[in-house]
Specification:
It is built from 17 helices and no strands. The two termini are 39 Å apart. It is mainly α. It has one domain (29-400): Na+/H+ antiporter like fold. The chain has helices at 3-23, 30-41, 56-75, 79-85, 87-110, 117-126, 136-140, 146-176, 185-217, 223-243, 248-262, 273-298, 303-313, 315-324, 332-340, 346-358, 364-397. Helix 1 (3-23) runs antiparallel to helix 2 (30-41) and helix 2 packs across helix 12 (273-298).
Length: 425
């Protein structure tokens, strides 16, 4: 990226920061704006920024982003509170998500995408995680009952880490078909990835929580040092897992979950410092998505790809979520609201990049194109509808104060901080 492009990106970040509060209640979101900016300055339009997706820096940025997002998303979810107060996301994760993957697999096999069984399963798993950042208003608007916005918040915080082992499993099975008949090293590799990864995360996350608690309690650790230290915990868990043959991303997610649920002082860093750095990395990733990844798919979009992408954002997501909520006593508008807001974003992009680059998978290009189209449509559809739908749903549900939706629950921070009423709402 040359100096001119660097200036444009820097100015874009400054301008976004200046109007970010006003944008919260609008139909424009950060991912939408930065993906659009990337598209304009990239090779598809002005060709100012020369982003090579195979460049080492781009790969490093994507890698660090995924590590920190997995770690911080897991660390901010208090599992004790989830078990006590939040049955809806548990239903959506344990029932809705497996059904979404199964439904996505069936649709991928039914359409002429040219994918085999395991490639179709891999596509479905890559697109299963949701990204609340694409519809920020939904999880931050005080108009939406806390129980409902927290259901989406918790689901999006945990489903990327839960989907990752399945992504790796299906990738291994898909690439196994390319190996010689007698070669079964992929079985041992896959087993080590999904067992040693969590083990490294548990050890690193648990030890870090104890050390930071003791240091903070003894007055040895300055609050300003918590940020760099916890960033290092996320990176250390990744590195340790890779050193022993495990998967570093699974380790980062596991370390975040263990750290966040064991540390007594739930360090303010997790909800302030990490949010700022995490948002910056997320916006830059969407910028690169628009500049380098999206243009690569434009010439490969056929009707089957488009149909799958549309179904992924609608029926493939909405039917399983509705099934998972049967018996929860929710009103139809609530079920529709929870089912619609399953945007595909950061995790799907990064999963596709790492898995498809590192393994020899038949149909890899098709999978990548479907993911890119789905994420692009999600950026637009969920971004444009988030604020209006939050206002509409808030007004509809406010008419029934004694409804199950109004049940009091403990709030947890979103990826953009705690919910706070604003004058514009």
């Amino acid at each position: 990226m040359d100096t001119e492009a660097f200036v444009i990106v820097a100015v874009g970040l400054i301008l976004f920061g200046l109007v970010s509060k006003r944008l919260e209640s609008s139909v424009l979101t950060g991912p939408m704006l930065f993906a659009g900016l990337g598209l304009v300055i990239g090779s598809a339009v002005l060709d100012i920024a020369d982003f090579d997706i195979g460049h080492g820096f781009i790969h490093l940025l994507a890698e660090v982003t995924l590590i920190l997002v997995l770690f911080s998303d897991a660390a901010r979810i208090d599992l004790r509170v989830v078990r006590r107060d939040h049955g809806l996301p548990v239903r959506m994760l344990l029932i809705g998500m497996p059904l979404t993957i199964a439904f996505g697999l069936a649709v991928a096999l039914g359409l002429p995408l040219g994918l085999g069984l395991w490639e179709a399963a891999l596509l479905a798993a890559i697109l299963a995680p949701t990204d609340a950042a694409l519809g920020q208003s939904v999880v931050t608007s005080p108009r939406v009952p806390a129980r409902i916005r927290q259901a989406l918040n918790i689901e999006s915080g945990l489903n990327d880490g839960i989907a990752l082992p399945l992504v790796l499993l299906f990738a291994s099975l898909a690439s196994a078909g390319q190996a010689e008949a007698g070669d079964r090293n992929w079985i041992a590799f896959g087993a080590l990835q999904v067992t040693l990864g969590p083990l490294a995360g548990i050890v690193v996350g648990g030890m870090a929580a104890r050390l930071i608690d003791r240091a903070a309690g003894a007055g040895w650790m300055a609050e300003s040092a918590q940020g760099p230290a916890i960033l290092a915990v996320a990176l250390l868990s990744y590195a340790c897992a890779e050193m022993i043959g495990g998967n570093g991303f699974i380790a980062a997610f596991t370390a975040g979950m263990v750290f966040g649920n064991q540390v007594r002082d739930r360090c303010r860093f997790l909800f302030e410092f990490a949010e700022a750095e995490g948002q910056l990395l997320t916006l830059l990733t969407f910028l690169i998505f628009g500049a380098a990844i999206l243009p690569a798919a434009i010439g490969h979009v056929g009707w089957a790809v488009l149909v799958y992408a549309l179904l992924s954002l609608t029926a493939i997501r909405m039917v399983p979520v509705a099934v998972s909520l049967v018996g929860a006593g929710l009103k139809p508008p609530t079920i529709g609201f929870l089912a619609w807001f399953g945007p595909r974003g950061l995790a799907s992009i990064l999963f596709a990049l790492f898995v498809l680059e590192d393994t020899a998978i038949p149909g890899a290009q098709t999978i990548m194109v479907v993911v890119i189209v789905t994420v692009t449509l999600s950026i637009l559809a969920h971004g444009l509808t988030a604020a209006p739908a939050a206002r509409w749903y808030g007004s509809v549900i406010a008419q029934g104060q004694d409804s199950p939706e109004a049940k009091s629950v403990t709030e947890m921070p979103t990826r953009t901080g705690m919910v706070a009423p604003s004058a514009g709402d």
